[in-house]
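Risk mitigation, structural track. In case the binding assays with fe (iii) ion fail to produce interpretable data, a predicted complex structure has been prepared as a fallback.
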Amino acid sequence: MNPNATSENPRDFLRDQGFSDYTAEDHATWARLASRQRAILEGRVVDTFLEGLDRLGISGEGIPDFRVMNERLMAATGWEVVAVPGLVPDIVFFKLLATRKFPAGYWIRKPEQIDYIEEPDVFHDVYGHVPLIMQRVYADYLEEYGRAGLEAARHGTLHRLARLYWYTVEFGLAQTPQGLRIVGAGIASSPGETVFALESPSPNRIGFDLGRVMRTRYRIDDYQESYFVLDGPDAWPRLDISTLIPLWRELDREHDLEPGDVLGSDRVLTRGSGAYHREKVRA
Ligand code: HBI
Ligand code: FE
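Fallback model:
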């Protein structure tokens, strides 16, 4: 069915991965991306991410076969990866997560788009997102996120859930005994942002707070101006609805924050210089 249609039924968006249709060039694109990432992630991403890659058999050699990957994922946390053509409607996305299905684009970027794509492809979705789903605490957080999303749709607070996803699942950092590490898939699937998020003096790095994050707009087309830092690699927030509803009500009385804003009440780990985005504006 036409993916632009307004169906809210996940089944209308699922398809077969079409594993045998990938070309040698497709697998070579994966291999190039995966080997580049592996080298740069060591010591920068949480250790459980690299363990997840290994346990899933996600290799640097080629695009993984979802059937093989899903046997291991299902055994570990009861999750499964399902193939979709691209972005699915929010409600469909939440329904899938709430039933422990992670939607992944089946297509892979062309060699000339190696560093930037507008919609998530199989490399971002599988390499970036799936390794942590091998971990129970994370797997449970993602399911809870899906459930909270369905509630948010009824309360008119979808934008708050989108911000939460953005600043945790996609662009989260975490404190670990070894120092600051990456947990977000958007960072872990991008070589440029892997280094920028941890090492650049430009962005703010702010201790995670659920309400603070839900107030904060985000950039979709460039590195983040602020990253939020979980207190530990497993310190994902609980999203029970009885806490979220009063929180949403409180936030509706406050103005939104811009991506680079820093508040007096923030737990600031790094006050960014802002140099990176300032240069961009001038260029
Ligand atoms: N669809 N396939 C796919 N992948 C996503 O990450 C995704 C989506 N639809 C909606 C969406 N994300 C976001 O708007 C969520 O943060 C709500
Ligand atoms: Fe993503």
